[in-house]
């Protein structure tokens, strides 16, 4: 059995706390929260016409992104979805056109995730809307342990200016999330309670 660092053990326990809070939300609360989070996200992003925004297809109780997708498209943004290529590799992004049927693709761990067909164009997004298990006010994100978004953000940030917007329920905010050297900080987090904008250190 591999040895776990204190940071990894902390992350596992904090992840459990945040996911339990998320799971406790009922369906009406989730639907209302998704609408409010979408409004806050668009306010923070500002003009997105002509930009490519990667969203995510929610799995395992994540906040719904349909209200956000509708608003992004109405504002003139292109919408993309992430594709998991293989463990240890950055994500690929494919454009998702309105009305285009999604197909199941390999996801992290035991999950499969809806994705555009392989014929959809691969794109380099200008904005990443990032799923998460937990976050804190400093912009530290706790994912699900596979590191896909950390690797992807590190790669994209070396190549271009990109905005990383966490997207979650407000109940997923914790007092502090441990950050390791490879963890990529978010520029902001959009929730049903508003926008969390990390202060500069």
Automatic annotation (TrEMBL):
One of its GO terms (molecular function) is metal ion binding. It is an enzyme of class 6 (ligase). Transmembrane segments: none annotated. Its EC number is 6.3.3.2. InterPro entries: FTHF_cligase, FTHF_cligase-like_sf, NagB/RpiA_transferase-like. Keywords: ATP-binding, Magnesium, Metal-binding, Nucleotide-binding. ATP binds at residues 11-15, 141-149. It catalyses: (6S)-5-formyl-5,6,7,8-tetrahydrofolate + ATP = (6R)-5,10-methenyltetrahydrofolate + ADP + phosphate. It comes from the Bacteria. Substrate binds at residue 62. Its cofactor is Mg(2+). GO terms for biological process: folic acid-containing compound biosynthetic process; tetrahydrofolate interconversion. NCBIfam families: MTHFS_bact. Belongs to the 5-formyltetrahydrofolate cyclo-ligase family. This is 5-formyltetrahydrofolate cyclo-ligase. It comes from Ancylobacter dichloromethanicus.
